[in-house]
UniProtKB/TrEMBL annotation:
The gene is Dper\GL11061. Keywords: Hydrolase, Metal-binding, Protease. Signal peptide: none annotated. The keyword Hydrolase applies. InterPro entries: Cyt/Met_Dipeptidase. This is GL11061. One of its GO terms (biological process) is proteolysis. It comes from Drosophila persimilis. It comes from the Eukaryota.
């Protein structure tokens, strides 16, 4: 979807989720290399991002720290602790079994893909100051929205 101009693919996936895609839990779209103009690479394993939303709520109302300090945890330190125990000092994931391959017994569909060019995202695309500024503004807007997710009672994080 990102670079091939597959407009409408997300709409199609939503439309067919109850029939053609009824037994599909996740859809992963791989933006990969091509071996030639008519020969795509066949990807059989991916490594990348999986996003999760975590909400930590330590209290349902604002509590006076002089009375409740130390007895009720604050959301931010709890979040920091949880994130700190996910990895060791060498960045190895400490969740048991997370790095093992899992055979799910689910079917995989390999869809034939025709030749294409990247159009607007070809090798001639250049990164310039305009793209840099737009990207920085987008990141700033994202961080502004993330900042709204924290208050003294609860915190939300996208992982």
């Amino acid at each position: 979807m990102e670079k091939s101009g597959s407009e409408g693919l997300d709409d199609l996936l939503m439309e067919r989720k109850n029939d053609f895609l009824a037994d599909v839990d996740y859809v992963c779209i791989s933006d990969n290399f091509w071996l030639g103009k008519k020969r795509p690479c066949l990807t059989y394993g991916l490594r990348g991002f999986a996003y999760f939303q975590l909400e930590i709520e330590c209290s349902t109302k604002d509590l006076h720290s002089g009375v409740f300090g130390g007895t009720v945890h604050e959301a931010m330190p709890v979040l920091c602790y949880l994130l700190s125990v996910l990895f060791d000092k060498d960045t190895n994931i400490l969740i048991p079994g997370v790095d093992r391959d899992e055979v799910t017994g689910k079917n995989v569909i390999l869809v034939p893909v025709g030749a294409c060019d990247d159009g607007a995202h070809s090798q001639n695309e250049k990164i310039d100051i305009y793209n840099y500024i737009e990207g920085a503004k987008l990141l700033g807007a994202y961080l502004h929205e993330v900042g709204k997710l924290y208050d003294d009672l609860r915190i939300y994080i996208l992982i």
